[in-house]
């Protein structure tokens, strides 16, 4: 059988515009997709992508339904591949919609280029239709933000933006008036942009020696690891072995250090579980490795603390700083190990491991077994079944809120899986847009694309519901597993611990499976927990997008491992207000749903 007809080639004398030059540069830098919505001032760039694609260049325009989703998708593609990803918005409202997703990408630290097209050059400064100032507006959510004013300037500014996105690990924003993008390019002969290899950040020898001395002097040491330990798992475990130290982690550090880790004691923070909090508070020295963990209320103020990070701005801004080392975690640990006196005393480690096991089989595991008859479905149980049924190399994208909790506690990392979320920016509605980028990143990969699972909440999905159309439009094999509690569960919990009865957190029941089916996506609504596994297996077996709507218990709350007196008082006050308001039945139902989740000594 004859192969596909070759794509037509453009004439060698075709005019090359600034937009053509821009597209050639982003392709040379590694970009494969541009996410956005076409229109007016952006049209020259869109047409340049079309012409390049027609010429056989590996670049594609991806039509999302909201520019915010395009920015999220670019962020996920950049995180999965490490390559530059691109999103775009037309003048005024179009590019303003990018802002939230760009904040997420920039705070996550992934290389994204945003093209913010602008009104005609001659109209700038006149209060023209849709006029904004993108070069000012995007400054806070980017590492580089610049206005392209002339064709002479364009090539160098585009290159500079790309190098900032790679080198500063964040978002670069280019503001380009539509009329300028359509002008003839002034070619400087440089389209090739080689992403720079990561540098070695070697710590100061004196700082390492001081840290070794402090670790040797400390009776009990706990390690708390973050995303800066990516690719450094073996080093972290070697250090834990030398120190006989328990290892806790942040949410972003989980996938990097929890795999086959005999020293693991779980996670701290609002979503935390296990013995991590106790291990940090019970240590004589707390060693923070590659983490800028933001919740200082979970970091002990009375424990001596040492911190290792490649970014000196992270040092000491969350907690006390008794010792600091600026350096890569791996480089630092490898320099540190020969200086340490290896320990044999495991009493502190064993005590924390025992405490962790009790927490995992008691509190965290309370609703993961013997619940096949419970309705509404316990979300914890659904998360465990999802973990068991998903592929070993699946990419999970996770909505902010209660889905973060279930992912943090019940998804098992294995060194091949990825878990992506708005873990630093904390935006709602990120799961499906992130999944779009993750799925496109793997399209055409050798051996077939990786499984992509969007763990979505009904609050998040409903905000950017139109992106289900994008999944169907591009036949992306994303499996949307919807944890539908018809409630903003995390907000509900926040209100309760602040002493406020929940208000405006509930949503009407919606047949999201029916909505997805109307779009053309195979879907199922599940209310019986005995049907969860079968529904997931059927969805995972489908080649294209699929949606499984799990109707879960809206009263299931996530309680952190450390509960303050103030939180207890707030919760009690809120429950009293519920009773006085005639909500005794609601209070009793919530107690039945969460009694086993209350941490006990």
Description:
By secondary structure, this protein is α/β, with parallel strands linked by helices. The strands form 3 sheets. A 7-stranded mixed sheet has the order 10-9-8-7-11-12-13. α3 (67-81) runs parallel beside α5 (99-108). The longest helix has 18 residues, at 347-364.
SSE layout and pairings?
Layout: H1 18-28, E1 33-36, H2 43-54, E2 60-63, H3 67-81, E3 85-89, H4 93-96, H5 99-108, E4 112-118, H6 134-137, E5 144-147, H7 151-167, E6 171-177, H8 178-181, H9 205-217, E7 221-225, H10 233-243, E8 247-249, H11 254-257, E9 264-267, E10 273-274, H12 276-281, E11 285-289, E12 304-309, E13 323-326, H13 329-336, H14 347-364, H15 379-389, E14 395-398, H16 402-410, E15 418-421, H17 431-442, E16 452-457, H18 458-463, H19 467-473, E17 478-484, H20 489-497, H21 512-519, E18 523-526, H22 532-541, E19 546-551, H23 565-580, H24 584-594
Characteristic terms for this protein:
alpha/beta; 601 residues; 6-stranded parallel β-sheet; 19 strands; disordered N terminus; 7-stranded mixed β-sheet
Kindly name the structural category: alpha/beta
Which spans have pLDDT < 50 for at least 5 consecutive residues?
1-13, 577-601
Rg, nearest Å: 26 Å
| Oligomer class | single chain
Q: What is the terminal separation in angstroms?
A: 71 Å
Main beta-sheet strand count, sense and barrel state: 7 strands, mixed
Total count of helical runs of at least 4 residues = 24
> Which strand order does the major sheet show?
10-9-8-7-11-12-13
What is the number of strand segments?
A: 19
Beta content: 15-25%
Mean pLDDT: 88
Task: Summarize the amount of helix as a percent range.
Answer: 25-40%
What is the 3D form?
globular
């Amino acid at each position: 059988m004859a192969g596909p007809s070759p794509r037509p080639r453009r004439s060698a004398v075709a005019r090359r515009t600034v937009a053509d030059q821009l597209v050639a540069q982003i392709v040379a830098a590694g970009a494969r997709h541009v996410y956005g919505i076409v229109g007016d001032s952006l049209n020259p760039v869109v047409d340049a992508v079309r012409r390049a694609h027609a010429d056989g260049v590996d670049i594609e325009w991806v039509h999302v339904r909201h520019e915010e989703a395009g920015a999220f998708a670019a962020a996920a593609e950049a995180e999965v591949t490490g390559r530059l990803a691109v999103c775009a918005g037309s003048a005024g409202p179009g590019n303003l919609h990018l802002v939230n997703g760009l904040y997420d990408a920039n705070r996550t630290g992934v290389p994204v280029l945003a093209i913010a097209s602008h009104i005609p050059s001659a109209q700038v400064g006149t209060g023209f239709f849709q006029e904004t100032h993108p070069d000012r507006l995007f400054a806070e959510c980017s590492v580089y933000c610049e206005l392209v004013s002339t064709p002479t300037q364009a090539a160098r500014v585009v290159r500079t933006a790309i190098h900032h996105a790679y080198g500063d690990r964040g978002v670069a924003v280019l503001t380009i008036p539509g009329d300028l993008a359509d002008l003839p390019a002034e070619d400087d002969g440089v389209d090739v942009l080689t992403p720079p290899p990561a540098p070695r950040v070697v710590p100061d020898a004196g700082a390492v020696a001081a840290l070794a001395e402090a670790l040797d002097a400390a009776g009990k040491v706990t390690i708390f690891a973050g995303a800066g330990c990516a690719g450094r798992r073996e080093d972290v475990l070697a250090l834990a072995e030398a120190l006989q130290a328990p290892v806790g982690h942040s949410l972003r550090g989980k996938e990097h250090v929890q795999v086959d880790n005999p020293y693991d004691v779980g996670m701290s923070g609002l979503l935390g579980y296990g013995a991590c909090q106790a291990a940090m508070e019970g240590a004589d020295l707390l060693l923070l490795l590659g983490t800028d963990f933001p919740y200082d209320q979970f970091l002990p103020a009375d424990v001596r603390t040492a911190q290792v990070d490649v970014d000196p701005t992270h040092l000491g801004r969350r907690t006390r700083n008794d010792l600091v080392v600026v350096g890569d975690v791996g480089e630092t640990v490898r320099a540190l190990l020969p200086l340490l006196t290896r320990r044999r005393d495991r009493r502190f480690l064993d005590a924390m491991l025992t405490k962790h096991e009790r927490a995992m089989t008691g509190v965290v595991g309370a609703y993961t077994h013997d619940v096949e008859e419970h309705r509404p479905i316990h979300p914890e149980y659904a998360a465990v079944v999802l973990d068991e049924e998903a592929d070993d190399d699946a990419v999970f994208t996770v909505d902010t809120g209660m889905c973060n909790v279930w992912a943090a506690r019940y998804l098992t990392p294995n060194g091949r899986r990825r878990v992506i979320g708005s873990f630093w920016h904390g935006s709602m509605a990120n799961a499906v847009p992130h999944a779009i980028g993750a799925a496109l990143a793997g399209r055409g990969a050798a051996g077939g694309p990786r499984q992509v699972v969007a763990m979505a909440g009904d609050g998040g999905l409903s905000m950017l519901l139109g992106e289900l159309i994008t999944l169907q439009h591009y036949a992306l094999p994303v499996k949307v597993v919807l944890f539908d509690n018809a409630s903003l569960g995390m907000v509900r919990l926040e209100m309760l611990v602040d002493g406020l009865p929940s208000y405006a957190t509930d949503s009407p029941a919606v047949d999201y499976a029916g909505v997805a089916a109307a779009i053309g996506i195979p879907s199922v609504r599940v209310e019986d927990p005995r049907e969860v596994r079968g529904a997931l297996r059927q969805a995972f077996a489908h080649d294209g997008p699929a949606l499984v709507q799990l109707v879960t218990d809206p009263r299931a709350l996530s309680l952190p491992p450390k509960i303050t007196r103030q939180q207890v008082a707030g919760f009690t006050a809120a429950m009293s207000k519920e009773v006085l308001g005639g909500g005794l039945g609601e209070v009793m139902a919530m107690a039945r749903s969460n009694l086993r989740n209350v941490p006990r000594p």
